[in-house]
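Hypothesis: this fold can be encoded by more than one sequence.
Test: take the structure tokens below, design a sequence, compare later.
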């Protein structure tokens, strides 16, 4: 599924880097009192990556009889998010709500995958997804190490973004990733006018 490939190729490094830079992001844009939001933010970043994948793959279900299945899947996601939020918020507050959302979107992704396996086998490129995730994790580890040298949140944020952009681009280029090269070609054509 090409759209999923491109979403994950771009989504993994953004999420991984933002998870590492969460304290710097909060420190840059908010007061120190908001640093308690770092853990829920990190969990919600993972939930949003899953949400992005579910929404992208959901477009296929709009064709034919898939709309009914899609409605059921989204109903389960909503019910899980609501129920989980009510239960977990009592004990864990915002972090509990974030966990409930992560679990609901993970369940939604699993249900959507199961629907595709039964009704319309979707060719998923697991090796590419894993390679993107591993590359993003390597870059995030590099961001973590490099940003430890800087103590100002704004400088960490800017440096982390630079390291991610250069490092991830270099890794995909060295891997000779065709989707990345196609994206670069498209961007060059658009820039040339």
């Amino acid at each position: 599924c090409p759209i999923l490939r491109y979403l994950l190729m771009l989504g993994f490094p953004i999420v991984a880097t933002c998870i590492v830079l969460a304290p710097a992001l909060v420190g840059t844009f908010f007061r120190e009192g908001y640093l308690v939001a770092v853990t829920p933010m990190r969990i919600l970043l993972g939930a949003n990556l899953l949400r992005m994948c579910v929404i992208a793959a959901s477009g296929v279900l709009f064709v034919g009889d898939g709309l009914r299945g899609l409605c059921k899947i989204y109903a389960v996601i909503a019910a899980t998010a609501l129920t989980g939020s009510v239960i977990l918020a009592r004990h864990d507050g915002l972090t509990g709500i974030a966990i409930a959302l992560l679990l609901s979107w993970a369940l939604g992704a699993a249900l959507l995958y199961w629907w595709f396996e039964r009704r319309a086998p979707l060719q998923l490129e697991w090796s590419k997804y894993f390679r993107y995730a591993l590359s993003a994790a390597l870059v995030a580890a590099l961001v973590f190490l490099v940003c430890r040298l800087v103590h100002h949140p704004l400088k960490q944020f800017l440096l982390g973004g630079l390291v991610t952009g250069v490092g991830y681009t270099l890794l995909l280029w060295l891997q000779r990733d065709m989707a990345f090269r196609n994206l670069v070609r498209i961007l060059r054509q658009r820039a040339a006018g």
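The radius of gyration is 19 Å. The mean pLDDT is 91.
Hypothesis status: open.
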